[in-house]
Amino acid sequence: MKKRSYFGTDGIRGQANQYPMTAEVALRVGLAAGKLFRSADDRRHLVVIGKDTRLSGYMIEPALVAGFTSVGMDVRLFGPLPTPAVAMMTRSMRADLGVMISASHNNFADNGIKLFGPDGYKLSDDMEARIEAFMDEGLQEGLATPKQLGRVARMDEAQARYVEIVKATLPRAMSFAGLRVVIDCAHGAAYKVAPTALYELGAEVKEVGVSPNGFNINEESGSTHPAAIVAAVKEYRADIGIALDGDADRVLICDERGQIVDGDQIMALIASAWAAQGRLQGDGVVATVMSNLGLERFLAGKGLVLERTAVGDRYVMARMREAGFNLGGEASGHIIMSDYSTTGDGLIAALQVLAELVRSGKRMSSLARQFEPVPQRLENVRFAHGKPMEHAQVKAAIAEAESRLNGAGRVLVRASGTEPLIRIMAEGDDEKLVRQLVSDIAGAVRDAAQ
Asked: Is 366 a catalytic residue?
């Protein structure tokens, strides 16, 4: 398959109003995807579109709408809604395609376009490549006649429908009454639905990051800036803090002492609870190569496996579907529970943590550290040209690091899929050695990149 021009590891993403995140490209996406997902029968075809709170959404959304309607697809606009909600609604409304306009945890200047198939899952690499091929072909082909143009309507009840779906993931008798919960929505897509769901489930809710203005999404708030949730938990003396990112597909938890609980610890907690309840499928968890070795050891101690994939929640989901797992995710807080969702859902993951808090009767601090993380060191090295990974000096440094760890840790060196960076990670029981190994490999990469 040839290198893709528009799509990256998670849809199309870039700085707003600069290629490829322009109105023209969005129009081409609508035209191309609309043609590809429009079948030959005479029925009306439907695409649903959600977005986060970035100012540039007002530019990208109408461009997409113009593309879809011009090839005869009807459009339903959700307005601000989490990415996983768009995936759910695509399937529940029997839409032909779902679109989310968001750059997730990036700042307001960026934006992105994510596409979901009629089954609610992110499109495959092959399907994205087919859309790209259509985007570069003659766009005047296959346009609808004036009578066949698509119709557009706003769907005001989308948020309420998602709240009900989220609440239904818990047992009917489950109540969070008596819990004081801080929710940080990063001024993003979940700023209405997340506090509403928690309130309706009985919690005393303290809201943070719920005043979007088009510019402040993820700004010093949300899962990428955990200091905000730590401060809020301490200020309100809360039992637990929940920090979502801009499109609410990832989550971090903060316990009542201000300790951050990352995605690996969340997966460990849910996996342990589900295994005890006989709910964990696949006898384990799917995570990426970046998840801590401590998680792998924790699961092994319970007779469970950790299967690893390439970085990216789409690859986690693909392995879950292939091998029959119902829990997976990333250390960054993408938690996928396929019993409920087709992609990472920060709010649903948070509800599972809250449910275990209620069931156990313990404080969150007692549940926060399911395992002791193995010392891990990460470093990114930027390069201007060449292919440092193919340099003999870099290969030798990696081999030397693996030899010195001698099976008591891991080394992972990979090129970024979105930036000219080499990402270096090492972990092992000897923290001093781990730091030295990363430093040695980084030095080799810098020398090779000169």
From this structure: no
State yes or no: cis peptide before 226, omega within 30 of 0: no
- In which element (H, E) is residue 268 found? helix 263-276
Given a cut of 90, whether residue 132 has pLDDT beyond it is yes
The predicted model scores a pTM of 0.93
Note the Cα 373 to chain centre separation in Å: 22
Helix, strand, coil % over all residues of the chain, rounded to 5? 40, 20, 40
- Stretch 57-79: mean pLDDT, rounded? 97
- Residues 175-187, mean pLDDT to the nearest whole number: 98
The bridge status of strand 73-80 relative to strand 152-154 is: parallel
Phi-psi region of 79 (alpha: psi -120 to 50; beta: other; left: phi over 0): left
Percent of the chain with pLDDT over 70: 98
Of the candidates 260, 259, 229, 264, which has an alpha carbon nearest to the alpha carbon of residue 243?
229
Q: Which of 311, 312, 316, 315 is CA-nearest to residue 326?
A: 316
What average pLDDT does this structure show over 154-177? 97
**Interval 320-344 mean pLDDT:** 96
Give the chain's mean pLDDT: 94
Catalytic residue among 56, 104, 221, 332: 104
For domain 162-368, give its CATH number from 3.30.70.1350, 3.90.1720.10, 3.30.1390.10, 3.40.120.10: 3.40.120.10
One CATH from 3.30.450.30, 3.30.450.20, 3.40.120.10, 1.10.10.10 for 12-156: 3.40.120.10
pLDDT tens figures, 259-287: 999 999 999 999 999 999 999 999 999 99
Q: Kindly report the CATH number that applies to the domain delimited by 376-449.
A: 3.30.310.50
Alpha helices, DSSP H only, in 38-151? Answer: 57-70, 83-92, 125-135
CATH code 3.30.310.50 region(s) in the chain: 376-449
284 φ, ψ (degrees, to nearest 5): 170, -160
* CA-based end-to-end distance of the chain: 31
According to CATH, where is 3.40.120.10 located in the chain? 12-156, 162-368
- Return the amino acid letter for 438: V
Contacts of 144 (CB under 8 A, 6+ apart): 69, 70, 71, 72, 150
